[in-house]
Design goal:
The chain is of the alpha/beta class. The chain has 2 domains: 105 residues, Sandwich (Immunoglobulin-like); 297 residues, Rossmann fold. It has 9 helices and 18 strands. It has a 10-stranded mixed β-sheet, sandwiched between helices. The N terminus is likely disordered.
């Protein structure tokens, strides 16, 4: 078993458009329970009136006037602190500069219960799916943006469930050479598979299937009008049918992840000894779902800032992950545990690489650590003090919550 923590940090100063910046004084941003945490402010005009709020995981404080260039606070339990620095009186929504700090993050406990029939629910769905024939409805080669990569549009079906996306592979497969298989899953707002992403990953030495989790037709270029119409069709899907686990859209989204695994594993060009499921945000949740529903095939999983984690985190006084389901739909508590990666991880056999951004307000880092800590298999965490939901808030070209996963992918492909 391996368990490694990689701390990404840097020293270059790049102030925000406001001219001021805030970050935890400690380089890695990680503290112990009860320790004093200092947030330092730089680049502030002496006459500039600023305010801040603090969230310890259970709600924001009232605005507090900033005096000096330090904010001190402490947390006497495992969790995360998020500080937002801003100018009061601005037009809403108020723009803020965030800073985060972790407190004993590897002791964070999930609040999500495990239903008695959780495994039976998913076992039946997987069994029902795999008893049906996997049909390739369409496999059409299209023009590739890279001469060394072949690209196909794909539509497959098993029973009533369909999947669509781009399949990309190096030209060398025509000579019989086999490559590792890579599934790259998209984020919550995606309404089309990403051709350039599939090609870029294939160039790294893999057979890549990049599916659209809504199963829309995969277009090399998505016209704005089509994008708008697709988003209208699936608007608020994450909050639909929240009292029936058989109708909740994430059921089919996760089953499409299983379908994607079985499809790419069946390709003659793929090396069945290496099958990687990878994605960020909701894509990270799909990657974990793929590894959970096909533990016999997925050999490696990379879940960067994975969504759908610890829906019941509020019980443990920390923020749940996207889509903050129970805050929007409290009645969803009857189905939420079935679609929580904390529980899905109990089925995973492959090593999993996680990442968390300390200032991520879409997928709060506590929800990622709740999943990470619950997983008893081989694992690695990539914590990034200055990362929001992927991007580095201080330097766009600096380390972010996604870069560590890419390095792990490249290392795994080279083994």
């Amino acid at each position: 078993m391996w368990k490694k923590t990689l701390i990404l940090s840097f020293c270059a100063i790049m102030l925000t458009t406001y001219g001021y910046f805030i970050e935890a004084e400690r380089e890695d941003g990680i503290y112990r329970s009860g320790e004093t945490i200092r947030f330092k402010i730089t680049g502030r005009d002496k006459d500039e009136k600023l305010f801040y709020v603090i969230n310890y995981g259970d709600g924001e404080s009232r605005p507090i006037p900033l005096s000096g260039d330090l904010i001190e606070c402490r947390l006497n339990r495992p969790g995360f602190i998020l500080v937002k620095l801003f100018k009061q009186g601005e037009k809403k929504p108020v723009k803020f500069v965030p800073a985060g700090a972790a407190v004993d993050p590897e002791k964070i406990v999930s609040g999500t219960p495990l239903p008695d029939d959780f495994h039976h629910f998913w076992d039946q769905l997987v069994s029902n799916q795999r008893q049906k024939k996997l049909e390739v409805l369409s496999l059409k080669q299209i023009e590739s943006p890279e001469p060394a990569i072949r690209v196909f549009t794909v539509r497959i079906r098993r029973g009533e469930l369909e999947s669509s996306g781009f399949l990309a592979m190096p030209l060398e497969v025509t000579s019989g050479k086999k490559y590792p298989a890579l599934l790259f899953f998209g984020g919550a707002s995606w309404v089309n598979a990403d051709l350039k992403l599939a090609v870029r990953r294939a160039k790294q030495g893999a057979i890549v299937y990049q599916p659209d989790f809504h199963a829309f037709e995969s277009l090399p270029v998505l016209p704005p009008k089509v994008r708008t119409e697709r988003r209208r069709k699936v608007r608020n899907y994450q909050f639909s049918h929240v009292t029936d686990k058989n109708l909740y859209p994430l059921k089919n989204i996760f089953l499409r992840a299983l379908l994607a695994v079985d499809f790419i594993a069946s390709r003659p060009e793929s090396n069945s000894q290496k099958l990687i499921a990878m994605g960020g945000s909701l894509g990270g949740a799909q990657a974990i779902a793929a590894a959970a529903l096909a533990p016999d095939l997925v050999t490696y999983c990379i879940a960067t800032v994975p969504a759908m984690s610890d829906h019941f985190g509020g019980k443990e006084k920390h923020l749940p992950g996207w889509p903050n389901l129970l805050a929007v739909k409290p009645e969803a508590e009857v189905i939420a545990p079935y679609f929580d990666i904390v529980n899905l991880l109990k089925r995973v056999k492959a090593p999993v690489v996680f990442s968390a951004g300390f200032v991520d307000v879409v997928v709060p880092p506590a929800s990622v650590y709740a999943a990470y800590n619950s997983f008893t298999g081989d694992k690695k965490m990539v914590p990034v003090k200055l990362a929001g939901h992927g991007a580095n808030i201080k330097n766009p070209k600096g380390p972010n919550a996604l870069s560590g996963g890419t390095r792990d992918l490249l290392n795994y492909l080279k083994k």
